[in-house]
Structures are given as C-alpha cells and as structure tokens.
Amino acid sequence: MLDYPRFFATPEDRALSSERLLPLELRRLSLQARGQRLIDSVDLKVQDPGISVIMGPNGSGKSLLLRLMHGLIEPTEGAILWAGTPMNGQIRRRQAMVFQKPVLLRRTAAANITHALSLRGVGRSERGSRAFEALQLAGLERQAFTPARVLSGGEQQRLCLARALSLDPDILFLDEPTASLDPASTLAIERLLIDAQHRGIKVIVVTHDVGQARRLAQDVVFLHHGRLIEYQSAPRFFERPESDVARSFMAGGLVL
Ligand SMILES: Nc1ncnc2c1ncn2[C@@H]1O[C@H](COP(=O)(O)OP(=O)(O)OP(=O)(O)O)[C@@H](O)[C@H]1O
Ligand SMILES: [Mg+2]
C-alpha cells in the first residue's frame, strides 16, 4: 500500500463508521430532457465495496448517471437510495467527485484544495498540511503554488483527484479521470484508486478504456442509450458479456 496521508481514515475507522452508505440502489431511475429519455428506467443495486466501473459508448449516459448518483441533478422519475436513505446533506458530505472536464478556480493548486476543505468545514490549521499531502499523493507538490489554470491538462486532472481525495470521502466518483493522462500518470492514478479502495473508499469510475476497466473493476455497469444493458462481476463481464452491444464494444467494434 502507498504511504497514505494522516488525514485518511483507516479501513478500520471506516468499517466502524456507524452509518454505512452501501448498498447504493437505483430504482427505475429516469432523466428526461427535451422530450428525450436520457436515462431510461435504470434499476441497479451496488452492494460491494470494490471498484465499480461504468462503461458504454459516447452519449450512453455515463456522465449523467454519475451526476445523478452524486445528487447534482434530480431524476425526473425514480429514486436513489444510500443504504435505504435518499441523498441528504450528510450523505453528500461523505462523497467527492472528479468531473470529466477539470473544474478549477482561478487560484493556486494548493488554494483550490484548501478552498474545498474550508467548504467542508475542515479547520484552518489543518487545511494547509492536508492540501500538501494530497498534492504529494497526486505527484503535484512542485506545482503547489502554480495557478491551477496554467497547469497542463493532465496536471489539472490530477489536481482534481488530489482535491477529491483531500476530502477523505467514503464514496469517490470519477468521470474518465485518466482521459488526458500519459501512461505513467494513468498507472499512478490507477494505483491511487486501488489504494483508496483498500482504504475502504467505495470508488465508482467511468471509463471507456477497456484495459483500465480490466485492471480496476470488480463489477461493471454497461450502459447504452441511457439504459442499463448489463451489470456483472468483472470476471464474468470480461469473459462473456451477455449483450451484443457490450460484446461489440469490447471488441472495439462499432456500436450504434
Ligand atoms: N442537459 C441536457 N439536455 C439534453 N441532452 C443532454 C443534456 N445533458 C446530456 N445530454 C445528452 O444525454 C446523452 C448522455 O450524455 P452523457 O454526457 O451522460 O454521455 P456519456 O456516456 O458520458 O458520453 P461520453 O463518453 O461522450 O462522455 C448525450 O446524448 C447528451 O447529448
Ligand atoms: Mg461522459
């Protein structure tokens, strides 16, 4: 395991945490916009604490599903339950998300993190050291005082991950977190995610990189046209996807 910062809860702490958030249940979840069903009656129950990977072709609804789960958008129908409870402020504070496009403030890299920590109510005295440790985790300590907006695309993405990890969430959502990273940075991020999972953080990650999904996933959610096509354990999904669309996607074929 990596040498993790002190602000991280230990797996034991998390296991003892009185309120578990899993299972995550989606019940007939739908999202309509301009007469279109962008998410179409998705039923899903995620029980296990391993890394869940969401896959599917462009436009299949992966980012929308992640935003719905994180409570950033409201479904038009259906419900999302965390251990039987609908999203509330307390549950949201135990989650963090890394978006497909980096969302950063016009401040230094470190200040982007301390700002997020202050919004979460972390005391001023703790913010600086926690931010620095999170930057170290993402290999960005040398860029701590660089304006976030001048960082390269890959560095910005890593900064967003550092910021999310600094919050020490119980649930971590990531939307294609390695899309603009080189192979070395990609592997470093994957290692971080695997370690986060060992720390008891539930990781839900969108990727269309099949290799990455194979390396990370314990279970796979496969979407197409806003519908849940398959939800399988990773070994089963990768060995024998049940649907034609998933098979074709995995083979690098055209999915219409
Ligand atoms: N606010 C909106 N109004 C109308 N359509 C939308 C809105 N947001 C997203 N969509 C549409 O919903 C579909 C799903 O979008 P989403 O961003 O979830 O796809 P995705 O699976 O994440 O794709 P990608 O792999 O390209 O990131 C797309 O066809 C998109 O154009
Ligand atoms: Mg997307």
Describe the 3D structure.
The chain has 10 helices and 10 strands. The N and C termini lie far apart (41 Å). The strands form 2 sheets. It has a 6-stranded mixed sheet, sandwiched between helices. A 4-stranded antiparallel sheet has the order 2-1-4-5, covered by helices on one side. With 256 residues, the protein is α/β, with parallel strands linked by helices. 36% of the residues lie in helices and 23% in strands. The structure holds adenosine-5'-triphosphate (ATP) and magnesium ion. The site of magnesium ion has 4 residues, from α2. Magnesium ion (MG) binds next to α2.
Topology, please?
Elements: H1 11-16, E1 24-33, E2 36-46, E3 52-55, H2 62-69, E4 77-82, E5 85-86, H3 89-92, E6 95-98, H4 109-119, H5 124-137, H6 153-166, E7 171-175, H7 183-198, E8 202-206, H8 210-216, E9 219-224, E10 227-233, H9 234-239, H10 244-250
Parallel strand pairs: 3-8, 3-9, 6-7, 7-8
Antiparallel strand pairs: 1-2, 1-4, 4-5, 9-10
